[in-house]
Amino acid sequence: MNTSNIQYIRTSMIDQAPPPRSESSVAGWIRKNLVATPKDVALTILALLVIFAIVPGALNWLFIQASWFGPDRTVCTTAAQGGIQPDGWSGACWAFVQDRFSQFIFGRYPLVERWRPMLVGLMMVALLIPLLIPKAPRKGLNALLLFVIFPIVAFFLLHGGVFGLRVVETPLWGGLMVTLILSFVGIAVSLPLGILLALGRRSEMPVVKILCVTFIEVVRGVPLITVLFMANVMLPLFLPTGWTFDNFLRALIGVALFASAYMAEVIRGGLQAIPKGQFEGADSLGLSYWQKIRLIILPQAIKLVIPGIVNTFIGLFKDTSLVSIIGMFDLLGIVRLNFTDTTWITPVTPITGLIFAGFIFWIFCFGMSRYSAFMERHLDTGLKR
Amino acid sequence: MADYSAPAPPSGLTFRSLAYDPKIRSIVFQVLTVVVVVGIVWFIGQNVATNLARSNTASGYDFLYGRSGFDIGDTLIAYSSNSTYGRAIMVGFLNTLLVAAVGIVTATIIGFIIGLGRLSHNWLIAKLCTVYVEVFRNIPPLLVIFFWYSGVLRALPNVRDSLEMPFNIFLNNRGLIFPKPIWGEGAWLVAASVVVAIIASIGIYQWASNRQSKTGQQFPVIWTAVALVIGLPLLTFLALGSPLTFDIPVAGRFNLTGGGTVLPEFFALYLALSFYTAAFIAEIIRAGIRGVPKGQTEASTALGLQPNMTTRLVVVPQAMRIIIPPLTSQYLNLTKNSSLGVAIGYPELVSTGGTTMNQTGQAIEIVSIWIIVYLSISLGTSLLMNWFNAKMALVER
User: Fold this and answer.
1) Which of B151, B182, B189, B230 has a CB 3.0–4.6 Å from the CB of B147, allowing a cystine?
2) Distance between B244 CA and the closest CA of chain A, angstroms
């Protein structure tokens, strides 16, 4: 066979063909993602039915029918209930949220002193944002300011009693402010305490190990509410007669101890994932125990378990809402307190207030989980398989 | 000239060599820890003794035999205000188990549906399920409970305008009122036949798998089991002459009489725990199924298995190994979260214990009961889990 007689040789590249219609067009996308098989068609119809059953009604209730402005309950009640709305009306009562907004944020903190929590909030934002941006310089100084200096300044600013600031007792604190203080202190305490507990659990000293295991397992085995009850009723019994403990501080101790047990288990997962060679390598370099942990082990272990740590933070943030059961007025507590206020007592007040509180909680928790996903990608050094 | 010869090595034990010996250090440190812990415990014990003596509170568990004097709305065992504190706490414990059990079943079903939905190739279904997970994962369970309790169930119409549903079920702000089954004579035989059917199904399964491994012949185990579990009790029921009547609720002028009631407290707690935990279960299911390498599916297709057989025989058994441990910890979380019922007055363990604590002042005893109960549930489950993990673990060379 004569193969040298090639009739035609192309000397230039042909133009790129456009992608097939099924890959690029809207119709193609729909065909692929929504109506690929009969089962898919049925599922799409089902999903559309669910969406149409929920979304228009919810939007209507939340925004169109909603009552936005007004001084008291009349704007959110029907004529039969003594209000201005037509009979059969039902909608969100945003007027209630607007009227009580500052209470939801600051609780019963005295009006003239509210610049103090606002200043603390500003300081926190100013210190937190550079810490969260990976490229911002001076992380060490920043962390020192945020976790050591800031809590002291914040305490004296919020509580008062120095530099002629009026004393504001903790029972007056409330709202989102309390939720944030509890979670901030909880996070700041539980991370180092959790690391210590995790190291203790892996320690070769039996006494230390048994103590840490007992603490971790007992705390993780019981619900937070029993820990809070314990902090509330048993701490006074444990202290000498006459020593009083602030209610707020009791809740703070309960929340922080509870979170640190969970944190310890997360950190332990990270410690276990570090190959033994890393420990041995550090030992052979002549590093002391704490040098080894601080310089070699923890940086690797913590990086591995960032998602778990942030999940614990999110859990802690959500769990702070439980302090409302032991009589403190965090965000959820203060919203619920207002359900019984005669100025705003309507059938739609509770659900509106709860949706508002839920939205605030959701923003914080969702933000934290997004940030952790970002950090995970940022710190991924490509060593993982 | 300086003398560069090495100094003589220290002979014997100097303080320095002892202080740097890891063994000695570890012993000293542990002794110090014990001393500090014992000191703290002693200090606390002293204070507790003084405080209790000062407030004239007797310690010990004798109070459990005292008359409780408070009523409980929802009880599984006979209870009145004349019953003892011990029985009140028992009622609470059973209620905790009840809400946890039904919550676990419902949360698992919703969680499976949502988790599989997130893996769906259908874009709309996947997005809907993602929205569900992201919403419920990021709000506190307590808020979900209040949402159902104050937001939805309290806003239902009152008794006179009850919502009527099929089968004589009524829904109003006092709860869900349903026809209450009253079992006649010999009804226990129906329950017994269910047990017999389940045991028989297990026997058939073992016989069938033995036969299949010997001869390769298959036997429709699932259909036989379904037929047994449904059919045998049904036959027993009919053979006994239908020993079942219903106490049907009747709408009177002002009230509904008769029927059984599911209190709104139970309903709110049950719905909230199910919906909240389902979001976490969905994520576990998704992670478990995605954790099975794609090569497994491809290999089983190459062996000529049908898609549904691939799922049933290759993907699910391997996914289960990943799913079960975190799933158990979610079940435990749900059980622990049922303690939030105290916020809406559902009489579970923490709630009845709390009332007892307020009335008797026996704080330490009540807290110890709580810790023992919850801890035994957790530890019991982890023991079961360890056994299961050991059984399921991959046996490598």
Assistant:
1) B151
2) 38
Interface check for B59 against chain A (CB to CB < 8 A): the answer is: no
Residue A342 has which token pair? Answer: 């005669």
Tell me which fold the domain A97-107+173-379 belongs to.
Answer: MetI-like fold (1.10.3720)
Tell me whether residues B343 and A36 touch, CB distance under 8 A. Answer: no
CB contact under 8 A, A47 and B44: no
Q: Was domain B85-156+263-392 assigned CATH 3.40.630.10? A: no
pLDDT tens track for B125-166:
999 999 999 999 999 999 999 988 887 777 777 776 777 777
Q: Is the confidence at residue A128, as pLDDT, over 80? A: yes
Contact B90, B78 (CB under 8 A): no
B256 at the A interface (CB within 8 A)?
no
Residue A385 pLDDT class (50, 70, 90 cuts): very low
Q: Which residues, 6 or more positions from A317, have their beta carbon under 8 angstroms from its beta carbon?
A: A179, A183, A361, A364, A365, A368
| ipTM here | 0.85
Does residue B139 sit in helix, strand or coil? coil
> What radius of gyration do chain B's Cα atoms show?
30
| Residue B11 forms contact with A (CB below 8 Å) | no
| Residue ranges for chain B with pLDDT beneath 50 | none
The shortest CB-CB distance from B342 to any of A33, A221, A325 is to A325
Cβ-Cβ contacts under 8 Å, B44 against chain A: 238
Interface residue B19 vs chain A (CB under 8 A): no
Judged by CB atoms closer than 8 Å, whether chains meet at B26 and A234 is answered as no
Q: Is B378 on the interface with A (CB under 8 A)?
A: yes
Q: Based on the number of CB atoms within 10 Å of its own CB, is B10 exposed (0-12), middle (13-18) or buried (19 or more)? A: exposed
Domain ranges in chain A are 22-69+81-94, 97-107+173-379, 110-167
Give the distance from residue B391's alpha carbon to the nearest chain A alpha carbon, in angstroms: 22
CB contact at 8 A, B162 and B176: no
- pTM greater than 0.90 (yes/no): no
Per-residue pLDDT tens over the stretch A188-216:
899 999 999 999 988 888 888 999 999 99
Give the model's pLDDT for residue A258: 92
